[in-house]
Amino acid sequence: MKALTWQGKRKIEYGEVPDPRIDEPTDAVIKVTSSGICGSDLHLYEVMAPFLDAGDVLGHEPMGVVEEVGSEVTGLAPGDRVVVPFQIACGSCFMCGQGLQTQCETTQVRDHGMGAALFGYTKLYGQVPGGQAEYLRVPQAQYGPIKVPDGPPDDRFVYLSDVLPTAWQAVEYAGIPAGGTVVVLGLGPIGDMAARVAMHRGHRVIGIDLVAERLERARVRGVEVLEYADDVADAVRELTDGRGPDSVIDAVGMEAHGSPVAAVGQKIAGALPDPLQRKFMQTAGVDRLAALYLAVEIVRRGGTISLIGVYGGMADPLPMLTIFDKQLQLRMGQANVHRWSDQILPLLTDDDPLGVDSFATHRLPLAEGPAAYEMFQNKRDGAVKILLSPGD
Asked: In angstroms, rounded to a whole number, what is the distance separating the alpha carbons of residues 339 and 232?
């Protein structure tokens, strides 16, 4: 089959890989009809190279049609239309019972001390072939795939794989009080959708980004927008009675602009041989923390910061005195898809309150995936959300 594979830093290839098959009785194989490029995929494109091997199949935002199921998969049948969550979870362990599917005890990658396995996301998360491909093997298919109705286009449902539950959890973790204000840092796909979810719940939303098209996209949906600049913290305080917002959602993560020291660290890591790169990444502070530092600065005293942008360093310096003195709460982590999917599904109707039907800025054939990665990385052509179609 055809798939997108990682071949090196900033090098994605479209080519032949082995067809997936049923390896375990809890497996399924789906024919992929749509697959998104996630903002966190760009971390693989740029920063997380030490944890990838040439030929790794990328992608963790797929949906499609069931082709085949293992003998212990009783809730699915060939022909079912499904969305596949980005994490692989069993649904029956202690952690899944707590609604913490990204900590699933059945699929935890213990060799690296990490949580549940993820599709297409490095050795740290199990090196499981991903969904930017024509077909996908789905482990733990007795629980993972979410059945969706036939009829509406894939755009209606594909974001259940990652974008919607990630944005939903970001807002949940932000703990925004009734009538409160939240600042969303970064208006890429997750930040944009988090802003939509927060507004749907009746909160005041202020969005901050560097890219004019992303600011305008949020503004037309009612978000108050600010362009990132050195004085943006003062601008936020002017809009919030001098004290700052109740909550901040950091939807930027490890590659934030305005972090020159960490940027140098990332470049140093990229120049080392793979074993040394891995050691450097695991023991050094290589995240660009400008967004997190800004969140700490602007949130009001007693407020909450929700971290949903991906961070990857193991020794990042944090302003603990300020965090403690301001009595801040921090919540973070990979989204637990099944925990939120039942609350999200009723919103995926023809009324489309979250604007999912028109959320994608680009839909391209899978064969154009390498160019799509480059466009998304460079924020060209208004790229916010790219969906790939293997059948085109």
From this structure: 35
- Average pLDDT, stretch 371-376? 96
Q: In this predicted structure, what is the pLDDT of residue 49? A: 82
pLDDT at residue 312 in the model: 66
Beta carbons within 8 Å of 188's beta carbon, 6+ residues apart: 39, 209, 214, 251, 252, 384
Q: Does the model's pTM come out above 0.85?
A: yes
Looking at residue 152, the DSSP 8-state letter turns out to be S
Terminal-to-terminal C-alpha distance of the chain: 14
Edge-to-edge order in the sheet of strand 2-8: 11-16, 2-8, 56-57
Tokens representing 176 are 């925004």
User: Across 71-132, where does the E strand assignment appear?
Assistant: 81-83
- Short-list 204, 206, 158, 151, CA closest to 33: 158
What's at 333, amino acid-wise?
G
Can you give the residue ranges of every domain in the chain? Answer: 2-162+336-389, 166-332
Percent of the chain with pLDDT over 90: 83
- Model confidence over 260-280: pLDDT tens digits? 444 444 444 444 455 545 554
CATH fold label, 2-162+336-389:
Quinone Oxidoreductase; Chain A, domain 1 (3.90.180)
Of 3.40.50.300, 3.40.50.2300, 3.90.850.10, 3.40.50.720, the CATH number of 166-332 is 3.40.50.720
Give me the mean pLDDT over the 157-184 stretch.
98
pLDDT band at 50 (very low <50, low <70, confident <90, very high): confident
DSSP designation for 156: G
Tokens, residue 361: 């800025």
Q: How far is the C-alpha of 6 from the C-alpha of 12, rounded, in Å?
A: 5
β-pairing, 11-16 vs 62-69, is unpaired
The answer to whether 281 and 218 are in contact (CB under 8 A) is: no
Length of the chain in terms of residues written: 392
